[in-house]
């Protein structure tokens, strides 16, 4: 036994997240096939949408990716340590942090003149992406402020505008055309000031199919990379996105089997009462809202055992949740909280509906401490 093993044994966890390598690669290649003449820049922010940045980087290791997209300095550090990819820092950071980046491998999104001023003071050769406000109205460069930014850059030739980018605010709005027109108008201003950006992109995953405009030569897919259909079933393009293959599944184990007498409650702040005249049996799983399971799914979801589904009952606790037992379930048996198949009632999409939220929120709230394992 090594010293490392003596002080840090490899404990087998009770909860596991599994990431399908073949599904992740399929999604990447499928999305690339939709826009074969444009560059694909995978977005792995928010812990790769719950899949684990380390794991996704391992899967992408041999792909010809020009940029990996992250949203924070900690995520940037993970990419730098565990890959050779160049990085696009999607969101901003505090001014004191910029000098800590590797400028040869990093491009910065810029949302305001103040950030440009901070970067200029570094007196370093670096690349930026101007993030233009075309209609979402959050924190991006507005059309009336763009000339100020371009005038400022005249005095700082070391700062190269490599990309001009924006984000579409809706999956179905007809106002998308207005956003595209606004983008092209602002892009022309950039050209008028003598800049020659390499990339032009305005995507959200959905619009890779809906927006057919060769003016845009790069795209940055988000949820679609991980296999989730971003469209509603009534959308005409729904079936094309159904080819995507979800990659994440999550398992836990049974740690307790309890006989609940008639007229007694189960779990905190009692919500579920045993009203059967004979004793009812429940099981407990070491997975609660600290791991990710929202309390709002109470009694709306089921988990899978090899001999049948188990209905959740009672309030979800911090690290535990309870389910109705069937006679074939034993302590230490594996159960599946999330399955890859989106047709099942414990898929990510189903959980999102049960919780009254969106798929994104379910995925990114998966506790980072849960062990993630790459499987074929």
Report on this model:
The two termini are 30 Å apart. The protein has helices at 3-7, 21-34, 45-49, 53-60, 73-82, 113-122, 146-153, 176-192, 207-210, 238-241, 348-355, 359-364, and strands at 16-20, 39-40, 68-70, 87-89, 106-110, 126-131, 159-165, 199-201, 218-219, 248-253, 256-260, 265-266, 272-273, 280-285, 302-305, 308-313, 321-324, 334-338, 371-375. 26% of the residues lie in helices and 22% in strands. The strands form five sheets. A six-stranded parallel β-sheet has the order 3-4-5-6-7-8, covered by helices on one side. A five-stranded antiparallel β-sheet has the order 11-14-17-16-15, with no helix packed on it. The chain is elongated, with a radius of gyration of 24 Å. α4 (53-60) packs parallel to α5 (73-82). It folds into two domains: 21-236, Alpha-Beta Barrel (TIM Barrel); 248-339 and 341-375, Lyase, Ornithine Decarboxylase, Chain A, domain 1 (Beta Barrel). It is of the alpha/beta class. The protein has twelve helices and 19 strands.
């Amino acid at each position: 036994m090594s010293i490392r093993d003596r002080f840090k044994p490899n404990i087998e966890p009770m909860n596991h997240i599994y990431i399908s390598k073949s599904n992740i690669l399929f999604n990447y290649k499928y999305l690339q096939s939709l826009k074969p003449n444009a560059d694909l820049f995978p977005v792995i922010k928010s812990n790769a949408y719950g899949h684990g940045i380390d794991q996704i980087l391992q899967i992408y290791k041999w792909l010809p990716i020009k940029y990996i997209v992250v949203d924070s300095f900690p995520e940037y550090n993970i990419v730098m340590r565990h890959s050779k990819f160049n990085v696009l820092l999607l969101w901003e950071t505090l001014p004191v942090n910029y000098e800590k980046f590797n400028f040869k491998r990093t491009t910065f999104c810029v949302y305001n003149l103040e950030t440009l001023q901070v970067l200029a003071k570094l007196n370093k050769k670096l690349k930026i992406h101007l993030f233009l406000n075309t209609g979402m109205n959050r924190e991006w460069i507005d059309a009336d402020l763009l000339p100020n930014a371009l005038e400022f850059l005249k005095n700082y030739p070391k700062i190269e505008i490599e990309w001009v980018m924006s984000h579409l605010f809706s999956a179905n709005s007809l106002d998308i055309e207005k956003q595209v027109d606004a983008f092209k108008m602002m892009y022309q201003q950039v050209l008028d000031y003598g800049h020659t950006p390499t990339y032009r992109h305005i995507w959200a995953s959905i619009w890779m199919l809906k927006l057919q405009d060769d003016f845009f030569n790069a795209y940055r897919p988000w949820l679609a990379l991980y296999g989730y259909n971003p469209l509603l079933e009534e959308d005409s393009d729904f079936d094309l996105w159904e080819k995507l293959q979800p990659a994440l599944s999550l398992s836990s184990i049974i740690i307790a089997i309890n006989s609940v007498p008639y007229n007694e409650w189960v779990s905190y702040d009692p919500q579920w009462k045993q009203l059967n005249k004979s004793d009812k049996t429940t099981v407990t799983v070491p997975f609660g809202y600290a791991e990710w399971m929202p309390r709002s799914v109470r009694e709306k979801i089921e988990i899978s055992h090899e001999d049948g589904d188990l209905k959740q009952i009672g309030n979800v606790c911090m690290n535990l949740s309870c389910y109705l037992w069937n006679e074939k379930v034993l302590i230490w048996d594996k159960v599946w909280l999330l399955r890859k198949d989106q047709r099942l009632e414990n898929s990510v999409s189903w959980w999102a509906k049960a919780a009254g939220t969106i798929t994104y929120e379910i995925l990114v709230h998966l506790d980072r401490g849960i062990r993630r394992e790459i499987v074929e």
